[in-house]
Every structure is written in structure tokens, then in C-alpha cells.
Task: structure prediction
Amino acid sequence: MHATGFAALSATAPLERFAFERRAPRPDDVVIDILYCGVCHTDLHMARNHGGFTTYPIVPGHEIIGRVRQVGAAVTRFKAGDVVGVGCMVDSCQHCQPCLKGWEQDCLEGATFSYGSTDRQDGSPTYGGYADAIVVRDRFVLSVPDGLDPAGAAPLLCAGITTWSPLRRWHVGKGSRVAVVGLGGLGHMALKLTKALGADVTLFTRSAGKEDDAFRLGADHVVLSSEPEQMKAVAGRFDLIVDTVPYDHDINPYMPTLAIEGVLVLVGYMGPLSHPVNAGAAVRGRRAISGSFIGGMRETQEMLDFCAAHRIVADIETIPIQNINEAYERMLKSDVKYRFVIDMASLTA
Result:
């Protein structure tokens, strides 16, 4: 199937228009015309080979909202015209323990990601959502509920589920006291979702001047983590801390703010922490450090349904695909509130 998108052809080349072939649809596939695609930090990291494993050419994009063009003979959940979503994954083995539990992202044979992966059946490369259309196995297609703005819903498929999953895992609800570290693409979604679940929400930030935005997004309190007295005032307070910071940073200042059996969960950074963690802060108070990576398909659909019921979407800036390289530069400077979304109609301009 012929497709057109934008791709990086090397680690140093700007993204440019790129014609390529999608695999032929199978009986359990859904063919989707892409309407919107969110722009994630992971897209930039992969395009520029920050991890050292990118294979080129690469078409990024894993926050995809589109309309079904056609479905295979074995597909019963979708029909032409449906508005649907595709997130970070397009397949998994479906038989290992994590997959059977609905944790496809942790598939023991390796999940097949929306781009930068290899198709499990024919070995072809997967290409992402910076394109006009995509072919996806129906089990990895999500229903977008009526009432969700399709552009604002696109980042829910990565930033949304990444923050939703730990909130559900640790049973956040009324009476919970939750802190969010960092106010960016992930952090702003964490505030919105935590507030909607009924918890008391605090934003940790190192920079003054974010209070108005934090309160608008759902925070009940803002704490400057660079101010020792403010940190001391919240010692032992939080049941859960969702750390959304996407780079190496010191988590030690946050540990004493956890309540007994509280958990700090890392969702924004996957590399080594250069600051040794003081084990005493974990040992005293039965505190824990954990991590969470996106979420499974069942959990992602639950999140979309919750967002529709509570009228939650991401705060976005919509851009034409021709501005993607500028958007990457602005993203590096944190010059976006809070997520770029590409209007794919611009691809035909």
C-alpha cells in the first residue's frame, strides 16, 4: 500500500517528505486514514538516534488519531468511518504472561512498536504516524469515544496512558495525596487525570511562575522543590509521586516527602540516574521507587473512556507537518504548552 509521510533519513538530517510502502492489509487489519498525530520527545530521540539503535529511514509518530478506511474480513469491532486511535504499539505475541494480563507493552517476546520495529509476520519495518495512512492489527486499534476532540485526544495515546497507568496501579482516588514532578507534556496530563480521579494534587517544580498554569490544570498545591523550607513542610505527605522529568535528575529530595509505604514512580526517564539514591530514605518508612512504561490496550481504552466522561484532552498547539523540524527545536527548549499535534491534512499542501 502506497503511503506518504515525513521521515528522518539520518541522525543529522532534518525530517523531509518521504514516499514508502505499507504492508498489504491482512484479514485482521484495519486501514486508517490519519487525521492527527501528536509529537512526543521519543520521536525526536529516535529521529536523532539518541539511543544509538535507530534504523533509517524512520517515520516517527505514535499518538495517532484517524478514520477507518477499510477493515479486513475478520474484523468485527470497527467499520469504515469510525474514528479510532493507535498508540505506541501495533502488535505483541498475545500468549506470554504479560500479554495475557493486558500488559502488552511488557511482552516477553518484545512488543512491536508503531515505528522503529519489525513486523512479526513478514519482517517489514514499521513506520509511524507522520503519514497519511497506517495499517494496524485490530487488537491494537482503540475506539475514540464521541465528544473527544480528535486533535486534543492524540497525545492521550502516549502522554495520557503513561501517566494514567501508575495512577490506576496504585489505586488513586478520593483521599489519595499525589504529587507530580515536572510540568510538561506528561506532567500536565498527570495533573488533569489525578484531579479527575478525586485526589489531592501537588505539583513539584524547580521554577517559580508556573502556579497559574498548575492550578488551571488541576493542582491543589504547588511546591518549589528548590526551596528547602517548602520541601520540609510536605515531609511524609504523599502516597504517590509521579515523576515525569525526561532527563537524569536527583530523586533524593522527593523521597522524604513520601508517606509510609509511599511510592515514587518514574515515567519520564529511562536511563541511569547519576545521583546515588539514599537507601535510608526508602528503608525508613517502607518507601519504594518504581517505574511504569506506557500501558496495555485494555488500560488505554479505559483511559480514553474516562477522558471522554470527564472532558479531558491534552493542551495542544496544532502545526502543519512542514513545521516538524522547528517543532523539534522548540521542544528541546520546552517551548510548547504542552504538546504539539500535527494536522495531517497539511501533508497534501
The longest helix spans residues 297-310. DSSP finds ten helices and 17 strands in the chain.
